[in-house]
Amino acid sequence: MPGTVYGPVHSWRFGNSLGVDMIVENSTCSFNCIYCQLGHIQRITREQRVFVPTQRVIDDLKSVDWTRVDVVTFSGSGEPTLALNIDEVIAHIKDTYAKPVMVLTNATWLFDAATRKRLLRADTIACKLDAWDDEMLQKFNRPAQGITLATIVAGIKALRTDGFPGKIALQCMFMPLNKGGVHKLAALIHDIQPDEVQLNTPKRPYPREWYLGSRGNHDAPAPVSEIHLKTISMDEAVEIERIIREANPGTPILSVYKDAPPP
C-alpha cells in the first residue's frame, strides 16, 4: 500500500519539507495545470471526501525522523483541501510533533467556510494564483467545471476575514503563456494583500503519465517519459518581479531565480 508520507523533500522556499499526501491512490485535483509535476491529472473533480483514513496517516507519521523536518507540507497527489479529514491530521501533527504546517492549495474550495475552518491550525496557506481572468484560468490551470477566478479570489480573502492567524502566501507560476499578463496579475495580488508572494517557473519536468514518485523532488530518473516545459528567462523573471514589487510595495517576494540555491 503506498505511503501517505514522503520525503523530506528539499524546497527552495520552505527548507526540508515532509510531504503529507491525503489522496495517494491516483492524482486527483480540481485543477489540471499545464505545468503540474504530477502530469495530466487522472481525476479532475471538485468532490470532497475522505480518501485515506486519518489513522493510516498517523501510523505513517510514526516512522519519520523528525530531526530532519523543518516543515510539514500538505500537497502530494492532488488538491489537499478535497480531503475532508485534513484538519484531523493537521491537529495530530501540531499536537504530537510541534512542527509548522503548510498547506499548498489551488484555493478552489476556500469559498467554503467549513473548508477554511479545517485549515485554521495551519501555519501557512500557500494559494496558487497564475491567472488574472477566467480565460487564462481555463488555458493555464484547466479547472474542473464550475470553478471561476472570482470564487477563488473571494475564498483567499475570506481566510483573513475569518481571522486566520497564519501566513497567507500566493504562489505564482510563470511561463511564456501567461508572462504577458503580469501587470494584471500584479493588480490582483494587490487586491488580495497576501503576506508573501512566491514567483516560480516550471523547473520540474512534466511526466507523460502519473507515478507516485512525481510528488517528490524528481531526484531519481523517472520511470516514465517526461516533457521539459518552457520557462521564463532570468531577465524576464527580474522584470516580472519588478512589476509585482512596484504594485505591491512592502510585500515580501521570493523568486526561484534569486532565492533558490544553485543546482
Give a short synopsis of this structure.
The chain has 263 residues and is α/β, with parallel strands linked by helices. It is built from eight helices and twelve strands.
> Roughly how many Å apart are the termini?
33 Å
Helix content: 25-40%
Structural class: alpha/beta
For CATH, the homologous superfamily is named as Aldolase class I
Percent strand equals: 15-25%
Number of separate helices = 8
- Name of the level-1 CATH class: Alpha Beta
Low-confidence blocks of residues? none
Structurally, how many domains make up the residues?
1
- Report the average pLDDT across residues: 92
Strand order of the largest sheet: 1-2-5-6-7-8-9-12
Record field, number of beta strands: 12
The CATH topology annotation reads as: TIM Barrel
**Secondary-structure element sequence?**
EEEEHEHEHEHHEHEEEHEH
* Rg measurement, Å: 17 Å
Describe the secondary-structure layout.
Elements (H helix, E strand, L loop, with lengths): L4 E7 L3 E6 L7 E2 L13 E2 L9 H8 L9 E4 L11 H11 L4 E5 L7 H6 L5 E5 L5 H7 L8 H13 L5 E7 L8 H11 L3 E5 L5 E2 L18 E2 L6 H14 L5 E3 H4 L4
Parallel strand pairs: 2-5, 3-4, 5-6, 6-7, 7-8, 8-9, 9-12
Antiparallel strand pairs: 1-2, 10-11
Helix pairs in contact: 6-7
